[in-house]
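Project standup — Tuesday

K.O.: blocked on the structure for the chain from last sprint. Re-posting the sequence here as requested.
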Amino acid sequence: MWEGPEFSSPNYNQYPVIRPKESAWYKVTGQNLNGCTRADSTFVTVFQNPKAEITTKLDTFTGLTNIELVANVSSNFTWVSEGYIPCDTCDTITVYPLKKTIYYIRAIDSNGCIATDSIHASAVSKIYAPSAFTPDKDGINELYYVYGHNLQSFEMVIYNRWGQEIYRSNDITQGWNGKKFNTGFEVPIGVYSYTISYTVLPDQELVQTGTITLIR
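H.V.: unblocked you, prediction finished:
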């Protein structure tokens, strides 16, 4: 007969299975056909599971930068994913999924206890086009940049108020310096229109139009 916190009544199973939530003593009493009894006891120690949590929140995925994943753990752990993992034991990793990808952490402590957590990260790409810049040679905001992440293609064309093309680029890392095609004369202060054609993940072709105010 088994007795202990996990048994609400005496248990006569020879091999009982319990899942205790806290450490405690358990007693077993046996009796033979002659009525002789014998008892023994054991202390069952319950270890706390290790802490394993990915603290990054989905609403921080802006689409303008790579994704930073942060692990909050209390023991040794590893990152696991079918996607690229830059460091499988670092507290913080930076990833750039090209498709919907699941990232896991698996923590295991010195007692062999295991805890896991996971996060689903989708491929997100966006662009941001500022509304103005100031190429006035003061060293601040001299170039006009469009910001984007994981773009599969990119082209920006800028026009003056008469619809004449004054700048074109297929390189998002190249900024416009306020000169015609970046090498000619400085264009006057004013408002210029742009058209940006780009492809974002997952394979969506988009066009964005707007205006840029050039201030000196």
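K.O.: great, moving the ticket to review. The mean pLDDT is 92. The chain has three domains: 2-44, 52-121, 127-214.
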